[in-house]
């Protein structure tokens, strides 16, 4: 089943041009988006007071990546909930809410308990899942199957990128009645169409990421700074590294750097800064300057051709990735980090597909 690959995680990372194609298959039609599972509910969703995203782990991170474009394309306020935390707080959920549950397996206990809670509170419950016939798919009022194909590695990879693309299509469908955002929607739809090609291109960084991994093999910790569309990329990259490579790693909001994390910076701690082109680019340039002036050991991810724009001194290691529509850039940017986590794990001699203490589907609370 692994074909020519050594591990399922590796196979699933490299499968992403295909899995993203199947996520979109039959859903981008005549310049618009058709999600069969949502079309009867779009009117209700457009009238809701807020969208609440609920999930755990990687699925939560995918929702966080979707948050900016859902807000932008729908104009509806979006709040985020880690499923267990919503339950711990018994946080407010109202009839006027649209609660969107994101889960690869559709069987995660925390997420399903949060679903029961939202159903009791009368919210419209929408599922985003990879598993047809799962409890999540059956119990939600409506939803979208992401159709990424079976994911076997405990570390979620292809499901993450397909979840983001499914939520991009959801945002486009909800916002499709708005004339003012028509040009923006068209640009994103054309970005979706060419996304699998850009994913194939970024996968060519495999050897470079293996080389980077070998330089990090003995590090005790790895920080990842992102912001805007790529705050989620920082969290998800760090989650992959800690989960499979068993290395301490934290994803951080770059805008919070001066409020604490800066104290950690020295010449030994490796720091990945995500600085691809979008509205936050110049802010990330100044973050890099500040880290360099404290002798930070930087690895900068930037758009192709931007190496000297992000690191004029030439003292950072640079990862250049293909540029796509800004809101879809997280789909591209996570892939070098998935490859990095994979190679770090192999080089450190840990089990890639069955990380210590973890299970693919967390069915207990
Ligand atoms: C559906 C078919 C697909 C077919 C296509 C043709 C299924 C599973 N899908 O896809 O095989 O090619 O029509 O038009 O038979 N749902 C939930 N919660 C969830 C996920 C989905 O309630 O978490 C519901 C949806 O609201 C929908 C149904 O499940 O009623 C199928 O969803 P989805 O597979 O996304 O719909 P289509 O893309 O239309
Ligand atoms: O099946 P789900 O998407 O609900 O799973 C949620 C988390 O348990 C899962 O994403 C976990 O964080 C992964 N092992 C991350 O790679």
UniProtKB/TrEMBL annotation:
Which enzyme type, at the first EC level?
Answer: transferase
Q: What residues of the intact protein does this structure contain?
A: 313 to 677 of 677
Asked if the record carries the keyword Cell inner membrane, the reply is no
**Pathway, per UniProt?**
Nucleotide-sugar biosynthesis; UDP-N-acetyl-alpha-D-glucosamine biosynthesis; alpha-D-glucosamine 6-phosphate from D-fructose 6-phosphate: step 1/1
Q: Which domain of life is it from?
A: Eukaryota
Q: Which GO terms describe its biological process?
A: amino sugar biosynthetic process; fructose 6-phosphate metabolic process; protein N-linked glycosylation; UDP-N-acetylglucosamine metabolic process
Q: What is its EC number?
A: 2.6.1.16
Reaction(s) catalysed by this chain's protein = D-fructose 6-phosphate + L-glutamine = D-glucosamine 6-phosphate + L-glutamate
Q: What residue stretches are annotated with the SIS domain?
A: 41-181, 212-355
Among the GO molecular function terms of this UniProt record, one is: glutamine-fructose-6-phosphate transaminase (isomerizing) activity
Which keywords accompany this UniProt record?
Aminotransferase, Glutamine amidotransferase, Repeat, Transferase
- The name this protein goes by in its record: glutamine--fructose-6-phosphate transaminase (isomerizing)
